[in-house]
Specification:
single chain, alpha/beta, globular
Length: 516
Amino acid sequence: MKQVDLLNTVMENYNNELVLKFLEKYDWIYNFQLIKFFLDRVWENIPREWCEVLLSLSIEDLNRLPYGDMRDEWPASLKEFIRTALTLSLPRSPRKGTIPLGIDPEMRRGMTPKKQHEVSLMSSVVHDVAQRADCEVILDIGSGLGYLGQLLQKHFGYHIIGLESKQGHTSGAERRARHTTELDKLSLKQPQQFLGVCNSCQKSRCVEGQTDVLKHPPDFSSDVMVPDSKPQLERPVTLTLPRALMIGLHCCGDLTPTMMEYFQSLDFVRGLCCVSCCYHRMEVKAGNETPYNFPLSATTCKIYNKLRGDNPKWSIGTFALRLAAQETRARWGKQTAEDHDYHTKNVGYRGILELYKHTSKSSRGTEGFSSSINIPVSFLKVQSDVVQRDCLALGILELYKHTKSKNCEKAARRIARKSDFSSFTAYVEAASCRLEAEEGTGIDRAELFRLYEENKDKMRFIEPLTALQYLLQPVLEGLITTDRAQYLKEHGITTEIIPIFDEVISPRNLALISVK
């Protein structure tokens, strides 16, 4: 339990002002769109005294930089940046003493090794929290195929209410449940109004959309909930129901803040245990791209607003949130020379194409060129003819809906495969053929090659800058997670943050745990 004690000590001494000022000072490291590396001349922001050191780093040096490996002769400012970033990062090593639950072969069917790792450890943590909160019912929000709920039911006999918005997952979970669990203790709910949603950072699914968060108690008297003009919790909800624990494994975007609001307002929900992901999918305000649900705590909000008042051009926006949701240094530290070469070409070649788009007289739609699309979102609630307990639990559904559109799918379309990055010639040929076929216009290959020759030497800055981003990644994710914990604490609810997964296997490993 030493890791937990260390993390609790870090949280108790967490300095919001220091973290925010640090991120403001070094926003040039993260506050840009990757494909605009050349267009925005990002490398020019790197201090000159850092450049010689960063460009001389070997592959091993690059991999170790986010861990704090540095040399005495390096510039004092660079060493100070590294030390501060490490100091402001939350510990990510899984707590000791958590015994993963065994998963029998029948229940393992369909689970990837990553999912087995997550479910076996999350189940153990959830059981511990349920005992502390004296809960009889588990509300699994965004339950997917039901892996987590089925394991909890099988090992501990909890009544599980799995809430999932994707019909295919609900059907799959029901098929699995017939073979693995006691059906009278497992309820699976899927409202017909919901469309496809993001599910635990599955990169294979191209899901675009926005999220609305319900910030008032549910009205169970109608089929559709319409938010009023004041998104505030105006009254507590008192329900005569069994004590319930609300859980979520990889809660996308605004889902964690939504669960926090319901946890705070519903008396029968006595505990919360969730692991967040996809921070960049939080709904943002039109005009400045800052999220509605950050910051949440009064402590962070006061400092953040003051800094933004002094420097209106700075914010924790989409680019910062995206970096917070990226892989951690644990995977970066295992990169090979081939991995670094591919990443350099991937960023560099796409950046040249973006530069071409802005310097060419003709305007063409290519990857990343589409502007953001506003998609209407409504608040939904579903009635049920099952027992009152299940009916009320449905009011705590994911409460967000992603809407696909052809424009979104087109914006996210890849115009080159991994094999096309073997050389710039191969990339241009592949990109040109696909864009010309789809857009019906020609591409000036000579101009593309001219831009490449002018800028290819700047590609050497890509990996050193990425190493600096890996130093800021845990600072950003720690800020978001700590802000959420502080918000609950400000409302008088005991809250802690515990790393529960191996970050190499599952980078989003910080569990937000709260008990009333």
